[in-house]
Amino acid sequence: MTAPATSRPVPAARARRLPGWATSMLVVLVGLVVLSITATLTGQLQLTSAGTAQAAVQLLLPILFAGLGGLWAERAGVINLGLEGMMILGTWGAAWAGYQWGPWAALAAGAVFGALGGLLHAVATVTFGVNHIVSGVAITLLGAGVTKYLSTLLFLPVSANPRQSPPLRGFDSFSITPLTDVLDALVRANLVFVTDVAGILQGLLTGLTPTVLLGALAVPVTYLLLWRTAFGLRLRSCGENPVAAESLGVSVYMYKYIAVIVSGGLAGLGGAALVLNPGQLGYLEGQTGGRGYIGLAAMIFGNWRPGGLLAGSALFGYVDALQLRAGGDAVHALLYAGTILAVLVAVLWFAQRYWLAAVWALVAGLVVYLVYFFVDTIPSQFAAFAPQIVTLLVLAVASQRLRPPAADGLEYRRGEGD
Amino acid sequence: MSRLQTTLLPPLLAVLFAALLCSIALLISGDNPGAALAVMVTQLGAGTTAVDVINTGAVYYIAGLAVAVGFKMKLFNIGVEGQFRIAACVAAIVGGLLPLPPVLHVIVILLTGMLVGMLWALVPALLRAYRGVSEVISTIMLNAVATGVIAWLISPAAFGFVQGNNISTPPIAPTGHFPGIDLGPSGTIFGMVFVAALLGVGYWFLLGRTRFGFELTASGESPTAATAGGVEARRMVLIAMLMSGAVAGLIGLPEVLGREHAYTLVAPQGYGFTGIAIALLGRNHPAGIAVGALLWAFLDKSALALDNIGVPREIVLIMQGVIVLSVVVAYEIVRRYAMAAEQRRVAAELRAQQQPVAEGAAT
Amino acid sequence: MTDTAEPDAPYAVELAGITKRFPGVVANRDISLRVRQGEVHALCGENGAGKSTLMKILYGQLRPDEGTIAVNGEPVVFRSPADAIRVGIGMVHQHFMLADNLTIAENVLLGAERRLGIGAKAKAEIARLAATVGLDDDPDTLVEHLGVADRQRCEIIKVLYRGARIVILDEPTAVLVPQEVEDLFETIRGMQAEGYTFLFISHKLDEVRAIADSITVIRRGTYVGTADPREVTTRKLAEMMVGSELPSPQTRESTVTDREVLRIEGLQLAGEGAPLLDGIDLVVHAGEVLGIAGVEGNGQTELVETIMGIRRATAGRIVLGHGDRARDITKATTLERREAGIGYIPEDRSRHALLASQPLWANRVLGHQTRPPVARRRLIGLINRAAARKDTQRIVEEFDVRTPGVDVPAAALSGGNQQKLVIGRELSGDPVLLIAAHPTRGVDVGAQAGIWDELRAARHRGLAVLLISADLDELIGLSDTIKVMLRGRLVADADPATVTPEQLGAAMTGADGPEEGAA
């Protein structure tokens, strides 16, 4: 017999909380207001233009899928650093199938190829107990190697370039026309705030493809499956306390396998989304460019929750889009938005009496503002990694508030519980 | 199973397994695995291949050591990639801008590389030690940041030096070149190869013979037991991470000092991840890492020869990937098997002695 | 189900001739146990007596080598806990099997979703059961917000939700404070009235007598007898439990000197809410064993870790040594404290004392990495591997560590031999103070006696020992002075020459302390 856990009760913060959906709406609203103010005051109209929003959607999709993949795996207690590799497999599979049988086949093949990578990760980590991070890195190396080999073998004859697939046929895009027309009118009406919101909405509803809809669907479906079904409860219990789950008759290995395979499939879908991006249809070696890792970062940013993950991917996709469309000046304007946000956060924390945190937020806001004031533009090279900087900041500031699954990344072996 | 067997068997099995898989892949694609293998082996005698293998092996060896220092205490410095690239870039800039006398010039470049690698590792080290942020995520983020910073550093707006189609850092004067051993038509062995070997000896001594090495291993094995034994966890995280970064800072320098004499826009990438694979293959042991590094370099160089006989060179990448994945699985299986066997052996040896005691106490 | 036990009703549980062997040890030897329906049946025995093994057999986690199980008169064979659950047996483990980040309802429903789904119907049932066991929280509360007692209630709900009528409680009071124990007993009595049967595992005799309808005692894996709590005295029960081979508290001579080795003044350690340590004052002299008695979770672990520098005291002073050589170590690091001569036997051997996959000689180095013989004298910062091996061999011989050599990994040794190695290491390098937390926990009987001998010998040589133990007989048998710890405070003193385990137990739970024996 060993010592019982000396866990102590944490005084429950039972303050009345807003329901989840209301908080999300509030966050979105605040974000819009801040952007609108910034766009108005700095004159950077691209901040809230329809084009930026539309580009952001395309850019956030791969990140979102990869992040969802990370979410599935980590909720079952398996860290998936192989997302990048599974995504690479997905891009190749999607291009190969898409070239022959069209975009729907591309989606399916992307998912299947990614899931194969997931299966490999599951075998290594769950069955053989290999360290999750080690296995993830190895799978990424392997994924890159396999796709290069296959590309040389299969794409070179048809595209005359071992690093590239022949151009693919993508989905036809569509817009929700009556609505977008109304929004277009609102944009033209040039009203403060209304124009900004309408612009963003217009972008979100234009140039839609089945891939976008799939991404939009994947978030609520993940939420419902993982949080509202017995299946999801069992899967999450494997990530929280697998020994307890086992003691209650849950087949931990099976759920971990399912989770990691789904995780790979989602990462593969992310790869397919890249390949089917209307702006750049086709496979290109290295096109994932670390988006698998960014997906992981978006998941952490979102505190291992689907809604938060969506917000994280949106943020990253948005900054990316802004940088691509409007360059350093627009990103520079974002510093202004950052200042406003920091002040808002500081006020919120003052109200909640987190004095120290509030002061830090103010200081951070001041620093950001000074940078804004003294620097004219952000070099494009820096703007490109804004998402990573944001992630690092979030981790540094909020790491104590983040709540990863309790048994995330720990080795679990059947029958070894106490 | 003897200790030697448990150490050597997994990597051998992994290499064989990888070779088998690749042979199958080649057969399917209509190539001849036997011919491929023959070419891979015979190419070693041709041209500069052997020297190239050693030179690249030295680079990989340093990379493997950098990763292994962290692995020893279960720190996953995925950021060796970013640390080595930014260190090589800044060291090349410093070397290109400062006019210095011969030996000092090289030393300054080496030290700059180590220092920058260390600084780049400082951020994740601090985040991990004081904020509990996983070094895995923070170093991955910093790898991307490093890419951006390097792109800016060697842009003409900053320190870039345009030469034809290529952009690089300002070229380093001959005083800052690390002399190698010229073997004529066989090529030139980098002087840095010897630095790498020295590093290996230092690593071996540090890990196996010093208090620091013991504390590092203890922290990796059980942070709680190490703490109770007077090891300060936070300090160990900082030191291990910074050491890893410092060694990482040297990875790019054999090429900068021995061949390129500048850091170019197209300078090779991925050594950090190769280092991870090699550290895994060599099980963080200095000799194992050396074997792993040479094997990796050999496979890399085979790619060219394979191309010549019409075998897709990328088969090598698959082979390398399979080796890493199967070697970690093999180590894990052997580890479990060996531990269970050890427990059985101890129990069996003791049962004979204990039996009379237990029976006596019960009556 | 009947409300009360009828005379001719079959036994709720009947174990007959249960034997279970593990490599090198017989955990249960021909044990029989009969539990009537609707009763609270206590299973008593010392740590390591085989109670948990027996209950794991009844719950289907282990399969007996010999013997039969019958439930409600029907013979059964359990292959897994699922089989046991099916016939209405449930078990509340001593270590709670709860996921902090899931809600009460989720923890209860996990694995039993088929019964009522996971929706409103299930939550209503959970709310009903929560009322039965006295849990006030909303089923949607995260378990991490619950205190220990509420977590236990949550565990009981888990068992009930699965339809259990026979509930095994494994050491349920070990983590509870007295008021919570009372509440638990209330709950048990209430459920007993509803027809539930309980198997209550404990080694705390006063509690057992307070709650049980009948008591079965086992000792070293064998059945000793069954007693009626209304007829048996606590003393008689204690004798049944420990036999007559216990160290006798009276037979010893004092080696206590007046040389202070450790002085603690006003030690304070803040916690979330109530302080973990509150105004601790104590002095340990050379040649003295100071025992700390207390229910687990009352601050003993924190006290030890604060003295070792693993936790930082919020206020107060820790002084090591006496007179001119006194040294304030309140702010020293763990390593400095060890170097100053403190040896430390942590309560959780595998997590805090050993490097499992490292060889024995490397484990010898841990905590001594700066001191000879394992550190080189002249070349500072270097480890002398040959000397470490040699000194490990010395420990192996002197402390009778049963091992084939010093190069085997620590994990390959049995618990008792690991502990002997740890004790040998901590007594190396001439310590002045030894902090021993549960030094014989999880150790077989033979090794236990050996460890006690070593501690006595060290005390005889003038070592000061701070002993923490949940085993009151060990505490009384070894200590020169006993202090009782309750909720982070030292609340009473006792003289081990006169105090009984029952008196100590009363003081530990906050009842009247045995002040009459105070020195």
TrEMBL record, chain A:
Keywords of this entry: Cell membrane, Membrane, Transmembrane, Transmembrane helix
Keyword Aminoacyl-tRNA synthetase: no
Coarse class of the protein's main subcellular location: membrane
Molecular function terms, GO-annotated: transmembrane transporter activity
Localization in the cell: Cell membrane
Gene Ontology CC terms: plasma membrane
Membrane topology value: Multi-pass membrane protein
Keyword Transcription regulation in annotation: no
CDD domains noted in UniProt: TM_PBP1_transp_TpRbsC_like
Parts of the chain that traverse the membrane: 21-41, 53-71, 78-99, 105-130, 137-158, 200-226, 257-276, 296-319, 331-351, 357-375, 382-402
Identification of the protein by name: Nucleoside ABC transporter membrane protein
UniProtKB/TrEMBL annotation, chain B:
UniProt keywords, alphabetically: Cell membrane, Membrane, Transmembrane, Transmembrane helix
One GO CC term, this protein: plasma membrane
Entry's localization field: Cell membrane
A GO molecular function held by the record: transmembrane transporter activity
Membrane topology of the entry: Multi-pass membrane protein
Annotated signal peptide: none
Pfam families: BPD_transp_2 (PF02653)
Domain of life: Bacteria
Transmembrane segments: 54-71, 83-100, 106-127, 139-163, 183-206, 237-257, 315-334
Protein name: Nucleoside ABC transporter membrane protein
Organism: Pseudonocardia thermophila
Automatic annotation (TrEMBL), chain C:
The organism's place on the tree of life at top rank: Bacteria
GO molecular function terms listed in the Swiss-Prot or TrEMBL record: ATP binding; ATP hydrolysis activity
Alphabetical list of SMART domains matching this protein: AAA (SM00382)
Membrane topology qualifier: Peripheral membrane protein
Compartments reported by the entry: Cell membrane
UniProt keywords, alphabetically: ATP-binding, Cell membrane, Membrane, Nucleotide-binding, Repeat, Translocase, Transport
Location (main, coarse): membrane
Pfam families reported for this sequence: ABC_tran
PROSITE patterns: ABC_TRANSPORTER_1, ABC_TRANSPORTER_2
Gene Ontology CC entries for this record: plasma membrane
ABC transporter domain residues: 13-245, 262-512
Record has Repeat as a keyword: yes
Protein name listed in UniProt: Nucleoside ABC transporter ATP-binding protein
Organism (species): Pseudonocardia thermophila
